[in-house]
């Protein structure tokens, strides 16, 4: 089976992990600081806080933003459910706004229409690696007095209008799950352009502990003293995994280039298949492609999915609209709220895209797609 995604781990990654596991610190050590510094090289110099997963990054970012009961978070439904679930877990009401038909990203007009005086955060999702129109969304959030957040689980390495992901929003979350553009096995990070938000994120990922005597309420207790002023969790990413992340970052440029080559090869090979809609490629984005999201007639998608799976091609569908999940239906959300995103879901099929895919693999997948529609 050719999977739709797979990590790329080589001897340099193994050597980095082996070296880290032999060091005195297995966690909260120098490899964490080094990885966070290395990440800043891809985010326009903006610092990062490493955490245990992309979901933990979302939870941490929302906590840093002060999201809680009585507030609303506007986001896209065309995403993995964690983008919305982590806000809901903090007590916020999630408001889903529709997506742009060309890109699958949060539509600025729909987002503006979803804003109320309770909106505290607007979270755009970089679908397949492509950002939303962040300038337009920034105009909306500035007018609303809300923070702009970017779920960039798909898009580390993407540059939009000359600015890298990590520099476009107040808070940016990254994921390093095994299928992502680089991996720490599990892992994620929060990036912020605000020192205050970053400090809150760093504290939240470590139980909320305050160790600086200058910030403590009872600093004379003793040199061992630490305090919790607001609740946090243990979302610390271990040194071993951070060492893997730093090693992977050294190859991220090559990963991005190979994914771009494969994506372009799919485009060329499917150009003559009338039933296939290939991904949009805006001129203002240098995209680090995470998915290859082809779109086909909705009434043919399931049969094509089964046809490719039967031939050993591990295609996937990204994503079930978040508001369709029963947990959000139980909160009052209904199908039909976001018709563009829902139609996108009915048509979307993700073809295999990772650095281990060969040109011959792409050609075989495309031949199978072409054969299916030729009947």
Helices and strands in order, then pairings?
Blueprint: H1 11-21, H2 30-40, E1 48-51, H3 54-64, E2 72-75, H4 82-89, E3 93-96, H5 108-114, E4 119-125, H6 134-144, E5 147-151, E6 159-160, E7 163-164, E8 171-175, E9 188-192, H7 195-204, E10 209-210, E11 227-228, H8 239-249, H9 252-270, E12 285-286, E13 292-295, H10 298-310, H11 326-329, H12 339-347, E14 348-351, H13 359-374
Parallel strand pairs: 2-3, 2-4, 4-5, 5-8
Antiparallel strand pairs: 1-9, 6-7, 6-12, 8-9, 10-11, 13-14
Describe this protein's structure.
By secondary structure, the protein is α/β, with parallel strands linked by helices. The protein folds into 2 domains: 11-249, Type I PLP-dependent aspartate aminotransferase-like (Major domain) (Aspartate Aminotransferase, domain 2, 3-Layer(aba) Sandwich), CATH 3.40.640; 252-374, Aspartate Aminotransferase, domain 1, CATH 3.90.1150. Helix content is 38%, strand content 14%. It contains 13 helices and 14 strands. A 7-stranded mixed sheet has the order 1-9-8-5-4-2-3. Strand 6 (159-160) and strand 7 form a beta hairpin. The protein is globular, with a radius of gyration of 21 Å. It starts with 10 loop residues before the first helix and ends with a helix. The mean pLDDT is 97. Belongs to the DegT/DnrJ/EryC1 family. The modification N6-(pyridoxal phosphate)lysine is found at residue 180. Keywords: Pyridoxal phosphate. It comes from Blastococcus saxobsidens.
């Amino acid at each position: 089976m050719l999977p739709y995604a797979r990590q790329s781990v080589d001897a340099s990654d193994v050597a980095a992990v082996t070296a880290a596991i032999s060091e005195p610190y297995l966690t909260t050590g120098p490899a964490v600081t080094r990885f966070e510094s290395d990440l800043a090289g891809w985010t326009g110099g903006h610092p990062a806080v490493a955490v245990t997963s992309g979901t933990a990054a979302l939870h941490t970012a929302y906590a840093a933003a002060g999201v809680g009961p009585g507030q609303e978070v506007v986001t896209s439904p065309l995403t993995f459910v964690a983008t919305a679930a982590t806000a809901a877990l903090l007590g916020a009401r999630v408001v889903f706004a529709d997506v742009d038909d060309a890109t699958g990203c949060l539509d600025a007009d729909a987002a503006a229409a979803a804003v109320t005086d309770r909106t505290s955060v607007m979270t755009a999702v970089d679908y397949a690696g492509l950002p939303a129109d962040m300038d337009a969304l920034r105009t909306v959030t500035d007018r609303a007095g809300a923070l702009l957040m970017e779920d960039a689980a798909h898009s580390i390495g993407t540059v939009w209008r000359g600015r890298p992901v990590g520099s476009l929003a107040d808070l940016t979350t990254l994921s390093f799950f095994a299928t992502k553009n680089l991996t720490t096995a599990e892992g994620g990070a929060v990036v912020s352009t605000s020192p205050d938000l970053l400090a809150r994120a760093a504290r939240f990922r470590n139980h909320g502990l305050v160790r600086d005597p200058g910030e403590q309420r009872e600093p004379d207790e003793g040199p061992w003293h630490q305090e919790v002023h607001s609740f946090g969790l243990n979302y610390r990413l271990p040194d071993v995994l951070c060492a893997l992340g730093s090693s992977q970052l050294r190859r991220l440029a090559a990963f991005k280039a190979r994914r771009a080559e494969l994506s372009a090869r799919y485009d060329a090979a499917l150009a003559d298949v009338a039933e296939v809609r290939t991904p949009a490629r805006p001129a203002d984005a240098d995209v680090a492609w995470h998915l290859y999201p082809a779109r086909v007639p909705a009434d043919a998608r399931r049969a094509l999915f089964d046809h490719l799976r039967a031939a050993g091609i591990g295609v996937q569908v990204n994503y079930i609209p978040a508001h369709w999940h029963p947990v959000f239906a139980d909160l009052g959300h209904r199908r039909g709220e976001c018709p563009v995103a829902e139609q996108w879901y009915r048509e979307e099929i993700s073809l295999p895209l990772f650095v281990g895919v060969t040109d011959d693999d792409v050609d075989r997948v495309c031949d199978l797609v072409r054969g299916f529609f030729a009947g």
